[in-house]
Structure formats: structure tokens, C-alpha cells
């Protein structure tokens, strides 16, 4: 069953095309990562999914039109823009009160249970919490909502590596249960390698790659080529080549692994390297710099 289905989804801001008539489908119980440089159309796509902006084309989210049925949709959808959106003046207890008052599917006891595993005091204000604590509070609020779809737009922006890992570990272990669907955008791409079930690359309002992580593992191979095999490797037409520690690293798409095994050390490419190869050097540099 499709959680999200888009056909010919288009959105323009004046003469700027943010979404160029894209088609995609997200099955229920999947974790989709949408990766792209700034201006690729990621946030515009999320806003359309959430019913926050009008659009052209067909879009169904949990079987509903998000623009005309937004009120009904919000009962089954939860959204985190980034960890900085909580008001700095609000106390932890007040944040719990607020969400309990506005969302019919919020389980306060569950949120309290999650917070009990942290050092966050109920009387502390958000402005007195570290970024990691704010992320923990935000996640506690989200995980206590019985939502069918969770949308995350740069949810760990500004957090260090340790807190980013804790955030995604908690999301997987305490929230995701194969019945819920998660859509996430981020620039910290490689740490999602073992989190995602599906991957989508966007660039300038279009989708340039849309496949499962299983397909990526079976389709793409990166080879650190032995110096004597460089010519033979290039003859197999890699989609990208770079230099690392004085050796050529080549990325292949749908090339027989038996042929590649004779060329050097093989591995599944990281998401950032794959993005660089598929989308292009300019956009890839933008992503790589933020990893």
C-alpha cells in the first residue's frame, strides 16, 4: 500500500521551477531519505506532502489530498523541521502540555517514559538545554504521537556526531515498527546508510535516482583499482572516477562483479560518493561539504 504517491507533481515560484513534474511512490513501512543540494526541491516536496503549499499534479498522502484534506491528515502525520523550532522560552512541562492539548494521538505517559531515560528536568526551559537535550525532547514528543507518517526535514541540524547517532538510534529502536513510514531529508548523508530502506536523489526540481537500498547494494560497486588494472577498469566505463591516496577509485553501475573483483578492492559506495557520481560534481561538492 502506498503511503505517498505523486504523479506530475509541479510547483513554481514565479519563473523558478521548484518541482518539475516529478513522479514517486513511497510504500507503507519504509524509511525514505531524500538527498539533494540546497534548492533541489526537497523542502518544497515535503511542504506539498504536508499540505503546507498548493501544487499542480496529483498527490495522495495516506489516501488523502494533502491540500484539501490537511486537517484530517494532520491526525496521522507528524513533522519535525529541525531541533531549533521549539520556542526557547517554553518549559519542558509546558511543551508536554501543549502537544497533549493539540494532538489527539499524543500519549503523555509514553513521552514521560522516554524523558525519564534522560537528564532533562521538567522545569527547565528550552533555552537552558543543550542542542542534544533539545533533540531528545523533540524526539520524545514525536515518538509519543501515534502517527502513520513521520516527516523529518534536517532533524539533526547543528548536532554533533554523537547526538545525531543517538537521535537515529532512538528513532529506529523506539519509534519505527514497520507500520509507520518515515521520510527524512538531511545533508549528513552517510550516517543514514544503515537507517534507510529507500533513497531518492533530487537536483533542480527533478528526481535523478529513486531506488531501494537493496537495489543500490546490488547495482553499484566502488573499486579501489590496482595500479596495473587502471586501463582495464576504464574500459568497463565507470560512471565516476576519483583519486584517493594515490590510487584510482571507480564507481560502476550494473557491471559484472566477477570482472570487477579482478581489478581491486570492492565495496558498496557511500551515499555521498554515489550522489557525487550520479548528480554531478557541483551538486556533489555541496553535499560532501556538509557530511
What is the topology?
Blueprint: E1 2-13, E2 16-27, E3 31-35, H1 42-49, E4 56-61, H2 70-73, E5 77-80, H3 92-102, H4 108-115, H5 131-143, E6 149-153, H6 161-175, E7 181-185, E8 198-203, E9 206-212, H7 213-219, E10 220-225, H8 230-235, E11 240-244, E12 247-253, H9 257-261, E13 264-267, H10 271-279, H11 281-290
Parallel strand pairs: 3-7, 3-8, 5-6, 6-7
Antiparallel strand pairs: 1-2, 1-4, 8-9, 10-12, 10-13, 11-12
What can you tell me about this protein's structure?
The strands form 3 sheets. This protein has a 6-stranded mixed sheet, with helices on both faces. A 4-stranded antiparallel sheet has the order 11-12-10-13. It has a 3-stranded antiparallel sheet with strand order 2-1-4, with helices on one face. Residues 281-291 have low confidence and may be disordered. The chain has helices at 42-49, 70-73, 92-102, 108-115, 131-143, 161-175, 213-219, 230-235, 257-261, 271-279, 281-290; strands at 2-13, 16-27, 31-35, 56-61, 77-80, 149-153, 181-185, 198-203, 206-212, 220-225, 240-244, 247-253, 264-267. The two termini are 33 Å apart. The protein contains 11 helices and 13 strands. It is an alpha/beta fold. The protein has 2 domains: 2-212, P-loop containing nucleotide triphosphate hydrolases (Rossmann fold, 3-Layer(aba) Sandwich); 215-290, no CATH class. Helix 5 packs parallel to helix 6 and helix 10 runs antiparallel to helix 11. The chain is globular.
Amino acid at each position: 500500500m502506498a503511503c505517498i504517491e505523486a504523479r506530475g507533481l509541479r510547483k513554481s515560484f514565479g519563473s523558478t521551477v521548484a518541482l518539475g513534474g516529478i513522479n514517486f511512490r513511497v510504500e507503507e513501512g519504509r524509511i525514505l531519505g531524500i538527498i539533494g543540494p540546497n534548492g533541489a526541491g526537497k523542502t518544497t516536496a515535503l511542504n506539498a506532502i504536508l499540505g503546507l503549499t498548493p501544487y499542480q499534479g496529483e498527490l495522495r498522502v495516506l489516501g488523502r489530498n494533502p491540500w484539501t484534506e490537511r486537517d484530517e491528515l494532520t491526525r496521522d502525520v507528524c513533522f519535525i523541521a529541525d531541533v531549533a523550532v521549539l520556542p526557547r522560552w517554553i518549559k519542558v512541562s509546558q511543551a508536554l502540555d501543549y502537544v497533549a492539548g493539540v494532538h489527539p494521538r499524543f500519549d503523555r505517559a509514553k513521552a514521560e517514559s522516554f524523558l525519564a531515560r534522560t537528564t532533562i528536568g521538567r522545569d527547565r526551559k528550552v533555552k537552558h538545554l543543550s542542542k542534544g537535550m533539545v533533540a531528545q525532547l523533540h524526539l520524545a514528543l514525536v515518538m509519543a504521537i501515534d502517527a502513520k507518517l513521520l516527516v523529518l526535514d534536517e532533524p539533526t541540524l547543528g548536532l554533533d556526531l554523537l547526538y545525531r547517532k543517538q537521535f537515529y538510534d532512538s528513532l529506529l529502536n523506539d519509534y519505527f515498527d514497520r507500520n509507520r513510514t518515515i521520510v527524512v531529508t538531511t545533508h549528513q548523508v552517510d550516517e543514514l546508510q544503515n537507517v534507510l530502506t529507500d533513497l531518492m536523489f533530487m537536483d533542480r526540481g527533478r528526481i535523478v535516482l529513486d531506488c531501494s537500498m537493496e537495489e543500490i547494494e546490488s547495482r553499484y560497486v566502488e573499486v579501489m583499482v590496482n595500479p596495473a588494472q587502471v586501463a582495464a577498469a576504464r574500459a568497463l566505463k565507470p560512471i565516476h572516477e576519483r583519486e584517493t591516496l594515490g590510487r584510482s577509485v571507480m564507481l560502476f553501475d550494473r557491471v559484472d562483479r566477477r570482472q570487477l573483483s579482478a581489478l581491486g578492492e570492492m565495496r558498496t559506495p557511500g551515499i555521498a560518493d554515489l550522489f557525487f557520481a550520479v548528480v554531478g560534481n557541483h551538486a556533489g561538492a555541496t553535499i560532501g561539504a556538509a557530511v
